[in-house]
Automatic annotation (TrEMBL):
Domain of life: Bacteria
InterPro entries, alphabetized: SAM-dependent_MTases_sf
SUPFAM superfamilies noted in UniProt: S-adenosyl-L-methionine-dependent methyltransferases
Name of this chain's protein: Methylase
Length: 261
């Protein structure tokens, strides 16, 4: 008996290279786990109306491990049919949703710009369902970016739940760090109000950015790195200068989690 896919279709908006920041972080942060796996299987959930970002995910994961396989999953059967001509060895496309119709638990699930249309109260159940499908040592990366990938925020989750939040941006387009607030994932975007941890984090980030203004003469990257270093005095950051140089900063989820958790 066929089972109806779980979830609702996204708008389908997609552009080549849109998810490059997320993909580079995944390859760096999750590469060792991919290399240890007997079969490094990844899922691109809700890839949209065209498969460009799924093809790019395969290419970027294979810089970490050439054995990586990717399955693109879409709830809209027309999108799956349109993507199938792009299938190659190690890359396939399937009709489905949050139930993840793959032959074995994946080591990675990427869900970019999928939960934006859902209610905040629905996010925890989706996270739990997807995390429950992960292989041991697996990773779920769920987040939101703008149309051309200049600004991106994502949550990384393991089988036990959320671990970190990463903010990533094209530094030349940034006026101040709180500009990234518009790309917060659904679990946090409505929490950017006084009294909530994510609001305090972005407030402190803006203050550190302002204090680092003298470094702007050395370039936006140096100013960002100085601001992040200062931010790390009060917030539990999980990365270092190598990632900061990419226009990234990762903070522990527990520090930004909604105040009612």
């Amino acid at each position: 008996m066929s089972t109806r896919p779980v979830g609702t279709p996204t708008r389908g908006t997609t552009n080549p290279n849109r998810l490059r920041r997320m993909d580079r972080w995944i390859a760096a942060a999750h590469g060792p786990a991919l290399r240890r796996a007997a079969r490094p299987l990844a899922v691109d959930l809700g890839y949209g109306s065209a498969p460009w970002t799924t093809l790019e995910l395969l290419r970027r994961l294979r810089t970490a491990d050439p054995r990586c396989e990717v399955v693109g999953i879409e709830i809209d059967p027309a999108r799956v049919a349109a993507a199938k001509p792009y299938a190659v060895e190690g890359l396939s496309f399937r009709h489905g949703g949050f139930e993840l119709p793959v032959p074995e638990p994946p080591l990675l699930i990427r869900a970019a710009n999928v939960l934006r249309q859902y209610e905040e109260g629905e996010v925890a159940a989706v996270w739990a369902r997807l995390c429950g499908r992960l292989a041991p040592g697996g990773l779920l990366v769920e987040g939101t970016c703008d149309e051309i990938g200049r600004r991106h925020v994502w949550v990384a989750l393991g089988p036990e739940g959320p671990r970190t939040v990463t903010f990533a941006t094209r530094l030349g387009s940034l006026d101040r760090p709180s500009d990234l607030a518009e790309r917060l994932p659904k679990a946090l975007i409505h929490r950017n109000v006084p009294g909530e941890p994510v609001h305090a984090f972005l407030r402190d980030f803006d203050r550190a950015w302002a204090a680092a203004a003298p470094y702007a003469s050395l370039g936006a990257r140096q100013r960002w790195m100085r601001a992040v270093r200062e931010l790390g005095r009060d917030w539990p950051l999980r990365d270092g200068p190598k990632r900061w140089r990419q226009g990234e900063v990762t903070v522990e989820w527990a520090a930004l989690a909604p105040s009612n958790e």
